[in-house]
Fold this sequence. Notes:
By secondary structure, this protein is mainly α. The chain has helices spanning about 5-35, 40-65, 70-90, 95-120, 125-155, 160-180, 185-195. The chain has one domain (about 5-195): Up-down Bundle (Growth Hormone, Chain: A), CATH 1.20.1250.
Amino acid sequence: MQRLKDELPILIARFIVMLGAGVLMTSIPIMMLQMKRSSTELGLVLATFGFAMTFTSPFIGKMNDRFDRKTLTAVGLVGFGISLALFAWSTSISQLLVGRIVQGFTAALVANSTITIVAENTPSQHLGTVMGRHGSSMSAGLAVGPLVGGFMANYLSPTAPIYLCAFLALASAVLIKVRPFGVESAQAEELKQLEIG
């Protein structure tokens, strides 16, 4: 992967997952306040996402060695989007915790699968540059998320930005499935050249 356009579906997917994580940083405290929950419970709900990512990543790594990574990425995005939408409907601490576990697992699925695709399709001499771009896409999502979440929570509702990110995740899954990239993109380009010739 040397051309930016080949990386766009993956860059967008990684950005959206972290955008969702960032949005929840502002929405969850408001939701917990409305439920009259304690700060300890708030900390638990916030931390569960990170723990879920940490403990499921090794298992997801094995999945990436066995199954199609593009499909795993799309499944992760769909799962992340659905879990966000269901999370917005949560009315109890147990529902929030289950939602956070699913979000952590699906976010790890997207993060691990996409970075494996990138590593597999990038020449070694360009790997550092490309990895830097993909790291930035996730950092950008995490930075923009709280801004979007805070703004929409203030002017709409705490769940509005969650629904937005759910929709974006589902749209990104479609893009991942229909847009060729990496080896597929190179093959498509060669086929196009042959047809022209």
